[in-house]
Amino acid sequence: MTNIVIFGKGGIGKSTIASNLSTVYALQGRKVLHVGCDPKHDSTLGLVEGGLIETFMEKYSRVFGVRDHVELKPEDLLVKGRLGIDCIEAGGPEPGVGCAGRGISLMLEALQDLRILDNGGYDIQVFDVLGDVVCGGFAAPLRKGFAEKIVIVASEELMALYAANNIAKSVKTYSSNGVYLAGVVANLKDGQVERGRLERFAALLNTRILEFVPRDPAVREAEFARDKTVVERAPGSPFTKSVESLAAKILAVRREDCPVPTPMDDRRFYGAW
Known about the structure:
alpha/beta, Rossmann fold, eight-stranded mixed beta sheet, 12 helices
């Protein structure tokens, strides 16, 4: 079983990449669990018929409201998506109320208590996690030992690289838990951007660029349609070919080839450009 955690700042495209990776693996005949760890709960939009699914936090609150002792079962949590992908979304509180990171922690605790990750027979488990890991809740997959291969999605934009550097700090902190940084995915905003800066950034983190994902109108079309992933809707598109390449590269990465990352402090980060 391979646990893949896709990290990145909000809006960087990590959910699109994560859901399409799950699709690629499922089309290859692998049994996949896709876990959305984002209060927007949109990671599974293209994987499940009918749009947004009920989140873990919604289910937890509903059951808690009718029973003093919450006893969730695996079938209470998982939603079967197309291609046989099992899906779950953490969800979170209303904006401005509560802590979204706590919802992620509760969901992971439930997965652990119910032994879903151990007994589900999954070949691939994809976790799609928000943020630059300033909140411990978003680092829960690392802290609680669910993570294995960490993939950071960034772009050529400065704040995306800043978030990637922060995520690398968290990977370093929890490296003793067995997590390792497989590499960075450059989800390009500008197709003409000079790629050397991104490669130099990856080298500063003591990692590599796994894939340069191109700008592709097929992504926007799939996001608005919300009925299928890009891989399904546009199998010959540049984006699909890039994600298929990325899927193979992630599986090929070995722990022994991934040194502990060397993230920069803020002063060094801003001085690097």
